[in-house]
Amino acid sequence: MIAVSANPRRRLSLKQREAITGYLFILPALLGFVLWYAGPMIYSLWISFHEWDLLSPMEWAGLDNYRRMANDPLFTQSLKVTFKFVLISVPLVQVVGFAIAMLLNMNVRGQAVFRTIYYLPTIAPVVAGAVIWMWIFNSDFGLLNDLLRQLGFKKVLWLQEPRWALWVIILFSVWGFGSTMVVYLAGLQGVPQELYDAAALDGARFWHRLFDVTIPMTSPVILFNTLLGIVFAFQAFTQFFLLSNRIGNPHNSTLVYSLFLFRQAFISFRMGYAAALAWVLFIIVLIISLIGFRLSRRWVYYEVEGH
Question: What is the pLDDT of residue 1?
């Protein structure tokens, strides 16, 4: 006789094997998130409660780094510049991107060529774009000042005067509207043509079709682009670093929050203060995003299947 074990080895069910396979597939992404995002975030929170200059051991400071912000005029200045940049650049990028997307959505000859041309600035590295922008707005031999001289005007110190410097960087940010345009173009192509046909039968003109059909049907895309634009604008760094001589010149008129954080961390070596600044920025962006999602219930339209 062959002895049969009273407790035969249990085999995994199909559902369990599929679950294990799924976890194995997501394991690299999960480890990457823990190692490169969650871990550093938690460590930076720990650093924010210390005084640390990278060379000497960390010293516990409690909430001193957070209290310091209330008495730091550069912190207030960086917030003002950042909010001004966000409030001006984000709407401009959305309006320009949406308008160009509507034009490129028309069935005209050379459509693919125009789409490529408008998207090219987005492909170019920010550093290369900043170099071109510095050449255009150079106060001595810049292309724009040369044009002004030929028209009989005096040269303008675009990047040396506080009243102009931030506007130059805002225009540079609007120049890279290509990625926003592409998302809007995809949203516009998803609007059913029969809605436009019905509006045309009712005698609706362009503006009525725009505000009654196009914008409501693309409102989820508008929400996505706007919130993403706000998040990126709050973190804007490279263009300010290059066009403001790395420190927010002239007279801190271009000192955005991320540049101020960089100065504290890698110029003044106040790593604890810089970590606290990073967490304050995270909280600001989080609150604005939550408010945006909350307000979106009033104006964002989601098409429901069967309705």
Answer: 47
The pLDDT score that the predictor gives to residue 304 is 60
**Where do runs of H (alpha helix) occur along 137-192?**
143-150, 162-175, 178-189
Distance CA 23, CA 285 (A): 31
pLDDT at position 10 is 60
Let me know if residue 194 belongs to a domain: yes
Predicted pLDDT of residue 271: 96
Total domains in the fold of the chain = 2
Sequence-ordered list of residues with C-beta below 8 angstroms from that of 233, at least 6 positions apart, any chain: 82, 85, 86, 89, 90, 173
Q: How far is CA 46 from CA 41, 63, 159, in A?
A: 9, 11, 38
Round to whole Å and give the CA distance between 105 and 161: 40
| Domain with 172 in it | 72-296
- The whole-angstrom separation of Cα 229 and Cα 189 is 21
Does residue 253 form part of some domain? yes
Dihedrals phi, psi of 50, to nearest 5 degrees: -130, 160
Instruction: Supply the CATH number for residue 126's domain.
Output: 1.10.3720.10
Given this model, what pLDDT does residue 8 score? 46
Q: What pTM did the predictor assign?
A: 0.90
pLDDT beneath 70, residues of the chain: 1-10, 304-307
User: Do 34 and 183 fall within a single domain?
Assistant: no
- 305 within a domain of the structure (yes/no): no
Is the same domain home to 170 and 281?
yes
What token pair was written down for 86?
Answer: 């966000």
Separation of alpha carbons 260 and 252, rounded Å = 10
